Structure formats: structure tokens, C-alpha cells
# Entry
Amino acid sequence: MLIVGLTGGIGSGKSTVAHYFAEFGVPVVDADRIAHELVAPGQPALDAIAREFGAQIIEDQGQLRREALRRIIFAEPRRRKALEAILHPRITEAMGRRLADISGPYCIAVIPLLVEAGPNDLVNRILVIDAPPSLQYERVRRRDGMTDNEISAIIQSQASRRERLAAADDVIANTGDIEALKHAVRDLHRRYTELGQDASIK
# Structure
């Protein structure tokens, strides 16, 4: 089965594009959703995070204080590496299991930090959702209520736009035109279906 790694910077529109692929019946496995499951109360990953960052990042009800953790890792980049060391192997393992259970010509693996993590044996192609920085800021401000400084810190921690585009096999430019976005997904759906069917024949 062809596995397409879907990635892009914050506010690029990854979730929207993944949703459109899902509307075509394409299986979608999302690393962010897996990460949320891994840090649910009682999960080993959450216990490991609490040991690393302290009990103050856990709410009384046992939920992760995401804002508190985010402030820590962007104030101290080395702490971000510690968080990644806890989560990334677990996310990769869980994604591998879920991808192995999928059948069909192709599927979408949404991996926000695909380029940052380096070579990835899980995916066969990389699809980058690209958007100009001005749109990234606008979308994240509207969606999450972050300040420009907070958004800038996240963008700076991610691969550059040039790095992502250099790594891409395919690119969708998400500049705000919904119909154009849907059309681009439709075209790639046809192409990926053909590629996946050809691969299964071989």
C-alpha cells in the first residue's frame, strides 16, 4: 500500500486537507491524535512527562496542562528534545501498528514534524501543505488565540518553508481558496489511487 506522509507548518491547513482526503474514503492516521491519546490520564507517556517536567504540568483531574508544557519547551529548547524523546518513539510505534491494519490503494499519514524528524521508513511519498507566513499567523491567531510571539516561536522551531518544499514529492498551495484546495486534493486522490494500484500489481 502506498503511504503518503502529509505535513506542513503550523496553520498551513494539514487537518483540512486530511479531512478532504477522508471524504474520499481514504484512511487517515494522524500523529497528533495519537499523541493526544498517549498523554491521556493513566497512560505511561503522561507519567514519563510528569517525571521529566514536574507535577505542576498535570491538572487535579489528571489531564495534561498543555499550555504550561508548551511554555516550558519553547522557553528551553533542550526540554523540547526531552519531550520528543518521550513521545516520538511511542507515536512512531503506534502509527506503524495502525498503518499495518489498513488495506487499500493508499492512505494518508499526517505527521506535522515529518521533515524535522529526518528520514521516515513509514512513508513512501511526502505531501507538503504550503502556505505563506502571513496566512499561517492569521489562521493560528484566529484558531488558537496565540500572540504573534508565540506563533513565531513555534514557526522557528519547525523546519523552514524552503526545507519542507525541498523534501516534498507533492505540494498543495493552501492560500485560502477552498474550491482550489478541494480540487487539488481530488487530483492527488486520483493520482495516489493509480500509484497505489500500480504498486500492488507489481
